[in-house]
């Protein structure tokens, strides 16, 4: 079999969003699975809407996901000479023709069609004029679509879809300003790049028979198409900002691992038995286009978080520590010892489903100041609590063996001496050390924090609570978006 060649062909008119990333991933996996090539083409021929900033963002998104391409990026904006040749060939062969109808005339016809409740289709008035534009005369180029017969899209995912040629219209392939349209450049490039398979969103389905006609007009064999169902929100409406962030890089910011994002994207509309967790290698080995579902896939944030957590569990401490560093740096935390951070990661990793949550959990270990939960401070750093905490700090300061069992002994013996339950001391200590009421085991935390930090922080918390100078956390944690 000939080499399989797929491509991802984004228009840089926006960020790389979830749907686009899934399209890229499926084309990537299909090529990798079959030992083929995956090509990146930037469809920036619409110069008004395309920006370099979006191109950069798309490249960055792909790089973050590790969707490396074998060829490209090829920029359509650099290829006008090639497109001109393609158009000349079509005009010479008579598979395309010049049309001189003005946009006013066409608008008029469109209005008339609308008022009669018909869909507007071009009446092909110029189809057999057989002339070329005079100097300075405005004209477009249209495709000479067959007037009879059918165009069948043998869709990999949806089976055969039949279109009546008469309904395809003689679409415009070159605008009055001489620029080629999306249909033309998309097909011309697929031919030039030898693309064999195109997986793309189902919003392109009605374009496909028209594009197949352009392939025929150019004497080329169309690729195999597969149109993927939309991604919708839990409410089954098309995925939009309302459902959360749609840009892929926003998920990096929200603390998702690229591997987990790939895994979750793959599962949006594709399945492999009941397996949920896939490494990149698993995906490449298991992927096949015929297992893409043909009904809309629902984006489910909770599930995505769960997938991320599962991937975080597979990471070694060293990997996880490395992965969380940028998130700590973003908060201004840095300069701590590698071993110390790893020990803290071991202690809190189970409590964090994302890297942002992990950074939250690590904050008490690496930050100099703690942000307190106001209610917790009110409840657990009262006068009596502070008295006990200060006495505990003095005891801990002279504690010989600084490890979790040693710290625990100190807590217990203090509580026995005072005749109070362990909780009466442990919870205030937790609040003093972490700012909140939920954390990893308190003795283990002290062990990792070290004597100096533990004692100093307990004393500082007491002093600040007494003086009313504690820093409080924002009432609601900022949301990913
Ligand atoms: N530039 C088009 C898009 O972003 C590409 C369509 C295709 O994959 O053929 O939707």
Keywords:
binds glutamic acid; 14 strands; mainly alpha; 19 helices
Largest sheet: 3 strands, parallel
Bound ligand species: glutamic acid
Order of strands across the widest beta sheet? 1-2-3
Spatial gap, N to C terminus? 45 Å
β-sheet strand percentage: 5-15%
Structural class by SSE content = mainly alpha
Helical segment count: 19
Task: Summarize model confidence as the mean pLDDT.
Answer: 94
Number of strands: 14
Supply Rg: 31 Å
Notes on the protein architecture:
The chain has helices spanning 18-33, 52-65, 80-93, 103-115, 182-192, 207-217, 248-253, 258-267, 280-286, 301-314, 317-330, 338-348, 355-366, 374-380, 383-397, 404-418, 423-434, 442-449, 451-467; strands at 5-8, 37-42, 71-75, 96-99, 140-143, 150-155, 159-164, 172-174, 197-201, 224-228, 231-232, 297-298, 371-372, 471-472. By secondary structure, the protein is mainly alpha-helical. A 3-stranded parallel sheet has the order 1-2-3. Strands 4-5-8 form a 3-stranded antiparallel sheet. A two-stranded antiparallel ribbon has the order 6-7. The protein is elongated. Helix 6 links the parallel strand 9 (197-201) and strand 10. Helix 8 (258-267) crosses helix 10 and helix 15 runs antiparallel to helix 19 (451-467). The model has no long low-confidence stretch (mean pLDDT 94). The chain contains 19 helices and 14 strands. The site of glutamic acid (GLU) has 8 residues, from strand 9.
